Automatic annotation (TrEMBL):
<comment type="similarity">
    <text>Belongs to the short-chain dehydrogenases/reductases (SDR) family.</text>
</comment>
<dbReference type="InterPro" id="IPR036291">
    <property type="entry name" value="NAD(P)-bd_dom_sf"/>
</dbReference>
<dbReference type="Pfam" id="PF00106">
    <property type="entry name" value="adh_short"/>
</dbReference>
<dbReference type="InterPro" id="IPR020904">
    <property type="entry name" value="Sc_DH/Rdtase_CS"/>
</dbReference>
<keyword id="KW-0560">Oxidoreductase</keyword>
<protein>
    <submittedName>
        <fullName>SDR family oxidoreductase</fullName>
    </submittedName>
</protein>
<dbReference type="InterPro" id="IPR002347">
    <property type="entry name" value="SDR_fam"/>
</dbReference>
<dbReference type="GO" id="GO:0016616">
    <property type="term" value="F:oxidoreductase activity, acting on the CH-OH group of donors, NAD or NADP as acceptor"/>
</dbReference>
Length: 240
C-alpha cells in the first residue's frame, strides 16, 4: 500500500525532482508533471505516473490529475513548483518574457489550485503547497517582472488559505532564496547571468534543491490541523 497521492509540477529537475525523490522515499504515490518527460521518467521512481504536460494548458493538466486519481486515489497534496525566472530591466526586456513568466508562475498555479481545491474542500482534507520565492517578499535589481509574479504567488496563497481554512484544507508557501538549479538559465541577458553568478559565488554558495525538498516534506508531515503557512529559506550568508 502506498501513501496518498502527491502531484508535483516542474518535476523534471531542480526542486521538483528533489521533492519527487523525497516523497517517493516516504512511500507516496506521485503524479509528476513536466515538459521534459524523459527527465521525470529517468528518475525511475516507483508508483509514479509521469506525464508530459504544459501546465499553462488547464485542460491537459486537469486530465492528467484525473488519470492519476483513477489509479492512486484523490490528490492529497498539490505542489505548484513549475516556474520561470527571466530577469531583465523593464525598459529593455522583451515583453514576451513577461507574458511567459505570468503564464507559468501565476496562471498555471491558479489552474492547478482550481483542479484540486473543490474536491479537497468537499473532503475537508488536503494540502496545496505553492513555491514562491524570497522575490515574493522583497525586490531585487533586474527582477521587476519576476518579482511581480512571485508577489502574486505569495498573495494568492495567503488569500486562498484564509478562504478555505474553515474547511480544514491547508494552503502553504515556501519562499526560497538563491538555489542551485536550472532556473537562472531561463534568463537571456548574459550580463545579468554573470552578475547573478558572481553574487552566488560571493556568498560562498547557495541552497541545494534538496534543502527545499526537506522543508516541504517537514511542512506536509505535520498533522492536518497544523498549517505552516509561509516559510522563507535562504543560505545563511545570503543578505538581501
Amino acid at each position: 500500500m502506498t501513501k496518498s497521492l502527491i502531484v508535483i509540477t516542474g518535476a523534471s529537475s531542480g526542486i521538483g525532482a528533489a521533492m519527487a525523490k523525497r516523497f517517493s522515499a516516504a512511500g507516496h504515490s506521485l503524479l509528476l508533471v513536466a515538459r521534459r518527460i524523459e527527465k521525470i521518467e529517468a528518475l525511475g521512481l516507483p508508483n509514479a505516473m509521469c506525464r508530459q504536460v504544459d501546465v499553462t494548458d488547464a485542460e491537459a493538466f486537469k486530465a492528467a490529475i484525473k488519470e492519476a486519481e483513477a489509479k492512486f486515489g484523490a490528490v492529497d497534496c498539490l505542489i505548484n513548483n513549475a516556474g520561470l525566472m527571466m530577469l531583465g530591466q523593464i525598459d529593455t526586456q522583451d515583453p514576451s518574457e513577461w507574458q511567459r513568466m505570468y503564464d507559468v508562475n501565476v496562471m498555471a498555479l491558479l489552474n492547478g489550485m482550481q483542479a484540486v481545491l473543490a474536491d479537497m474542500k468537499a473532503r475537508n482534507h488536503g494540502t496545496i503547497m505553492n513555491i514562491s520565492s524570497i522575490a515574493g517578499k522583497k525586490s531585487f535589481p533586474n527582477h521587476a517582472a519576476y518579482v511581480g509574479t512571485k508577489f502574486a504567488v505569495s498573495a494568492i496563497t495567503e488569500n486562498v488559505r484564509e478562504e478555505v481554512a474553515d474547511t480544514g484544507v491547508r494552503v502553504m508557501a515556501i519562499c526560497p532564496g538563491a538555489v542551485e538549479t536550472e532556473l537562472l538559465g531561463h534568463t537571456s541577458d548574459q550580463e545579468i547571468i554573470d552578475g547573478y553568478q558572481a553574487w552566488k559565488d560571493a556568498m560562498g554558495g547557495v541552497l541545494h534543491a534538496d534543502d527545499i525538498a526537506r522543508t516541504a516534506e517537514f511542512m506536509y508531515a505535520q498533522p492536518q490541523g497544523v498549517n505552516i503557512r509561509d516559510v522563507v529559506i535562504t543560505a545563511t550568508r545570503q543578505q538581501p
